[in-house]
Amino acid sequence: MAGLDRNTPKPTEVTVHQQSRALEIAFDDGARFRIPFELMRVYSPSAEVQGHGPGQEVLQTGKRDVEIVGVEPVGHYAIQPTFSDGHSSGIFSWEYLYHLGARQGELWQRYEQRLCDAGIDRDAPMVEKAGGGCGHH
Fold it and tell me: Could you give the domains of the chain?
């Protein structure tokens, strides 16, 4: 994973809001976002969620009430949150957090469309390697 280029906005403030379950992040270009933990969790940049290539993404469900229980800094370019469901392998670069914040409306729509296409409810528990039903086009 490459470091940041000089033009990537840097965060000036990062706050974890447990009550509203959102990560508030302010950047030095004046942008400020409140990114819901659920959105971060379902779009985690980890291989466990993203798979190992296009079309390999693992649809995440049942994450509406997920919380962030810890955050570790990764160098000067990212954070690694630990979620209450035990997921902790996602490294969120500042650039990726900016992308999640700036495009969250579009990302929510894409997530809801994927749920709809798969015929899965957003609040359904995660199914470990379901045999059939999904993945057939």
Answer: 11-118 (3.30.2020.30)
CA-CA distance, 75 to 23, in Å (whole number)? 19
| Residue among 105, 108, 99 nearest 27 (CA) | 99
State pTM to two decimals: 0.88
Contact 68, 86 (CB under 8 A): no
CA 42 vs. chain centroid, Å, equals 5
Give residue-wise pLDDT tens across range 51-88.
988 888 899 999 999 999 999 999 999 999 999 999 99
Q: Where are the alpha helices (DSSP H) in the chain?
A: 37-42, 47-50, 94-102, 104-118
Of 21, 77, 91, 14, the residue nearest 49 (C-alpha): 91
